[in-house]
Amino acid sequence: MELSLPVLTALLRDTLADPRGVARRLMAMGLPMPARWMALALIAALSSLLAHLTLAMLTGGQGAAQGILPGPVPFAMLQCGVLVVTAGLVHHLGRWRGGQGRFADALLLVVWLQFVLLCLQVLQLVSALILPPLANIIGILGMGLFFWLLTCFVAELHGFPVLGRVFLAIVLAFFVLAIVLAMFLGAIIGAPPGV
């Protein structure tokens, strides 16, 4: 399958209408692993650029000076790390529950999910300039879309038939991960003075 602009547009549209079908199509493309890693690097770079552009627009260029975000390259590297960890969790936790998915496909689906969310962020940024209240609605819808697409992609990747169980497993995994990260950050930062 050629990844031209019309094909990407059709895949984006179909992702909203039939996410499991799109997941099947993406996995059936048989992209070599180097192409998947390149897609990861590209989407991380685009995410970093969009995040810095958004911050510059919202703060009048002062956000970068205040250190709200790391520079574009460190932010892109951080984004790569987050996506790889997410793909690893999708792969390993799904296999632990009896799924059949491969890491290469988990990586591809996570990258595609990030691309879909990136397109939504662009729409949100444009709407923030034209009609700010609409941007808030798009942000809320984006959160719901993230969980819906992740649920469908994980279910298709691992061959799980029941979406409700997959969704509950994802929510539980996020909850556990948040606790682990909070404990990790607490151990690094330490207790505040005087406690």
How does this model look, in words?
The protein has one domain. Helix content is 83%, strand content 0%. It is built from 8 helices and no strands.
Q: How many strands?
A: 0
Q: Could you tell me the strand content as a percent range? A: under 5%
State the helical fraction.
over 70%
Q: Note the overall shape.
A: globular
**Which ranges are low-confidence, i.e. pLDDT below 50, for 5 or more consecutive residues?**
none
Task: Give the count of structural domains.
Answer: 1
Class by helix and strand content? mainly alpha
Largest pleated sheet: none
Encode the helix/strand succession as letters. Answer: HHHHHHHH
What is the first-to-last residue Cα distance?
A: 60 Å
- Overall residue-averaged pLDDT value: 87
Q: Rg, please?
A: 18 Å
In DSSP terms, counting alpha (H) and pi (I) runs of 4 or more, how many helices?
Answer: 8
Protein name: Yip1 family protein
Subcellular location: Membrane
Membrane topology: Multi-pass membrane protein
Pfam families: Yip1
Keywords:
195 residues
Summary of the model, kept short:
This protein has helices at 5-17, 19-28, 33-59, 62-65, 72-96, 103-130, 132-158, 163-189. It is mostly helical and 195 residues long. Helix 7 packs across helix 8.
List the helices and strands and how they pair.
Blueprint: H1 5-17, H2 19-28, H3 33-59, H4 62-65, H5 72-96, H6 103-130, H7 132-158, H8 163-189
Helix pairs in contact: 1-2, 2-7, 3-5, 3-6, 5-6, 6-7, 7-8
Keywords: Membrane, Transmembrane, Transmembrane helix
Protein name: Yip1 family protein
Domain Yip1: 14-182
